[in-house]
Amino acid sequence: MRIADLPTPSLLLDRRRLAANLTAMRGRTVAAGVRLRPHLKTAKSAAVARLALGAAAGPIAVSTLAEAEYFAGHGFTDITLAVGIVPGKLDRAAALLGRGVRLGLLTDDPSTARAIAARGQALGVTFPVHVEIDSGGSRAGLPPGDPTLVEVARILARGPGSSHAGVLTHAGQSYRRRGATAHAEVAATERDSVVAAATLLRAAGLPCPVVNAGSTPTATFGRDWSGVDELRLGLYMFMDLDQHALGVCGVDDIALSVLASVIGHNRRAAHLLLDAGAIALSKDLSADEFRPGTGYSLVCDAAGGAPLPGLAVASVAQEHGIVPLADPALFDRLPVGARVRVLPVHACLTAAAWDHYVVVEAGEPVDRWDRCAGW
Amino acid sequence: MRIADLPTPSLLLDRRRLAANLTAMRGRTVAAGVRLRPHLKTAKSAAVARLALGAAAGPIAVSTLAEAEYFAGHGFTDITLAVGIVPGKLDRAAALLGRGVRLGLLTDDPSTARAIAARGQALGVTFPVHVEIDSGGSRAGLPPGDPTLVEVARILARGPGSSHAGVLTHAGQSYRRRGATAHAEVAATERDSVVAAATLLRAAGLPCPVVNAGSTPTATFGRDWSGVDELRLGLYMFMDLDQHALGVCGVDDIALSVLASVIGHNRRAAHLLLDAGAIALSKDLSADEFRPGTGYSLVCDAAGGAPLPGLAVASVAQEHGIVPLADPALFDRLPVGARVRVLPVHACLTAAAWDHYVVVEAGEPVDRWDRCAGW
Predict the structure, then answer these.
(1) Residues B277 and B352 in one domain
(2) H or E, element range at A168
(3) pLDDT value for A303
(4) CB A275 within 8 A of CB A260
(5) Which end of chain A is less packed: N or C, by CB atoms within 10 Å?
(6) pLDDT for A130 beyond 80
């Protein structure tokens, strides 16, 4: 199928941009001497995971049990579920351990740690569990000096249905800063926090097999990952307009786009309508903090993916994207039925609406890769 | 399966609330003497569509060709695709006509009307096409007095591969007003606009078989639909926090909710974390305009679905919902592993992340209904 024959909207993944992003990050982690654990919460695709790992079924991270089950079904055996676990999910996790998957779990809560240790014993398995560290993002996790950290790790290490797998953090505050210098500072804080947590545990006589950190901005600009074993990140594969707004990538590094049709003109209101709206794009507006006017998407030409100056999706309904046109001549340049590409503000959320990628190279479809979904 | 055994997050649909919402709207349309054409863009479920129609395979509206194909596959034969069509989608539309589905299309563009008439002729079908009217929402459609309206209808009526099916509007401005009086005013404008368009066409000697209007707020509060044949709306089935904020429903009319687990406590930041985030809930914040503090969701008890006072999802990451807790005692009341229900701000977008509903009655699962997705 040629690109002109694709239905709209379609989710396009540019293989060369993807490959360049993957190569760049592998190079950074090799140079830093850390293991790369690609986070597949963004791509949710076995084909992308294999490329990210250089064709091997190496270590990955996921955000849901459904992703863990999908990747286990595709032969991945070293998976970290990097979202806090609850007792009610342990039986599904145990089923994956029973299939030979080393599924790392995550908690920061003593009661949950006790429940994991007990449930593992009852099920005859040993759950490897990381303790989550708050390195400044203030979402989840314990601060590195918190005595609860030692308590949780001790419960997990004692088991018998659990083991202490190490510490894990995500410097979410990197999404609220802009530019290389700021991200390098956050990376240093992320590293210092998680290494301090590991040091505290080791000083208490506890094992800390893995020190895991990561976000796309900090992994891109961090200069020294001493003491960190693994970097865990996902957006770097696709990049998006928010990463661009944060100074992490150029617009032409963004590998993901939505192919859309112009489905209407509204000359009185001076806008055109696309068939990519709130479901196809998501309602994420986060790029506007540092790049006002990005709105729900920037509009690009369909062939090469180059931005059309000044064209953005300013508002969305479920199946309508609304693009204000300052210049009425653009109505003639973009008639009803014309096609454009629009870029994701937040690739994780844009991709979430789709069950597959149309893989493109030099502007034409070359493959189709499935995605998993749900929980 | 008992509700306590459901995985989290799960999408729950309360059958009694759904039935009450459906009955109320059927009653309103019967009283107004108009045909109800349920818009399935929200529910995307054949089971819900049959209930909405009182078990018959009556007229429905959809927002994508994928929905049209799904409902055609479930025996629905009178479907209006209520989003502007483009020439590139006509072959899929023709395939549905070939299966005996009366698929109504929509445009407001003379060039597109000509392309439809020509493509229908080439394919040996007659596309029934509505002309879209702008009744004040300023999204798509022609103003009722616009001479282009007659031009488009004339092209469609001449065919030979098309017929003029009538006029269709959506008073989207109802989503920017609050309360019964305001919505009744918008309903009158919606009616007057679309009836004026039909009158203009008939005065020009053109057929106008169907006059179609509708939105959940205007259909709920409109007092007189004289001249309108059909009301087309979808959110009324489930309702949501935005409809509540607009004064259209009570919180206890909302039939859709997400069952979620508390997956973490952050006592320093005074919030707890849920496993329902940006994908499970969407990033829609529209209820905040009229009900500040709604955020991404209100939090309710898991059993009965009653709101827990003051608890809202204030921010979201992909798989995390963050709920600030003003009272530290709530950490003990909602330990890690506890379950809550959270309500959709915009039901169309919350439901979009899921491939099925868990149907509940008196708080327990009684059925599972599939949904369609994609385009």
Answers:
(1) yes
(2) strand A162-169
(3) 86
(4) yes
(5) N
(6) yes
Question: From B346, which residue of chain A is nearest by alpha-carbon distance?
Answer: A318
Contacts of A162 (CB under 8 A, 6+ apart): A113, A116, A117, A120, A126, A127, A128, A129, A155, A156
Residue of B148, B128, B144 lying closest to B200 (CA atoms): B144
For residues A204-227, give the mean pLDDT: 97
Q: Which domain CATH number covers A310?
A: 2.40.37.20
- Across chain A, mean pLDDT equals 97
Give me the residue from B86, B318, B354 closest to A263, CB to CB: B86
Quick one: tokens of A143?
């601060």
Residues A180 and A108 both lie in one domain: yes
Domain end marker among A204, A238, A272:
A238
A108 → closest Cβ in B87, B264, B335: B264
Q: Within an 8 Å CB–CB cutoff, is residue B23 touching chain A?
A: no
Distance CA B273, CA A141 (A): 11
Q: Is residue B97 part of a domain?
A: yes
Cβ neighbourhood burial of B78 (10 Å; 0-12, 13-18, 19+): middle
Instruction: Check whether residue A319 and residue A256 sit in a common domain.
Output: yes
* 3 state SS for A180-218: HHHHHHHHHHHHHHHHHHHHHHHHCCCCCCEEEECCHHH
Separation between Cα atoms, residue A203 and residue A176, nearest integer Å: 33
User: In this structure, are B178 and B39 located in the same domain?
Assistant: yes
Q: Collect the ranges in chain B with pLDDT lower than 70.
A: none
Tell me, yes or no, if A99 comes closer than 8 A to chain B by beta carbon: no
Type and span of the H or E element at A162: strand A162-169
What's the maximum distance between 2 C-alpha atoms anywhere in chain A? Answer: 72
Does residue B295 contact residue B258 with C-beta atoms inside 8 Å? no
Do residue A113 and residue A188 come from a single domain? yes
Contact residues, B window 192-231, toward A, CB-based 8 Å cutoff: none
What's the pLDDT at B182? 98
